[in-house]
Predict the structure.
Amino acid sequence: MDAYFITYFGFRVLFVHLIPCTSLVVLNVLLFRAMRTAQLNRQKLFKENRKSECKRLRDSNCTTLMLIVVVTVFLLVEIPVAVVTVLHIISSTIVEILDYHIANTLILITNFFIIVSYPINFAIYCATFSGFCLRLSLYRRCFSAAVSGMMTFADILNQK
């Protein structure tokens, strides 16, 4: 058995996959519970006709929901990578249980889903935050203006 191999992949599984994923699952559960409590508070505020506080709580819930969805997408792509890595460690050190042709295919599939998760997260941000979309639009206009050289950055900011 190669001590470097075991140390490297053991460290990777523990500190890159297991601890962060477990922490994210626990934090996701806590966020979900807090969001449920906030929804109950929001309903109570709505009944008491305190609409400004109700709107603020709704915005906070929207942000919390966005965070839960993004973390869930991350976990859906990260956990399979951890499983393949653990199977690789077991297969390389203890007993041959992994067909590496299948493992390579699994790695390609998980890498594909990791790449696909980036635009999904971007879409979640855009759908959740209208301010994010406005900033993105501003950056796009700034880039277009810089490329064309027709407007300065101050002109774009002052434009309504």
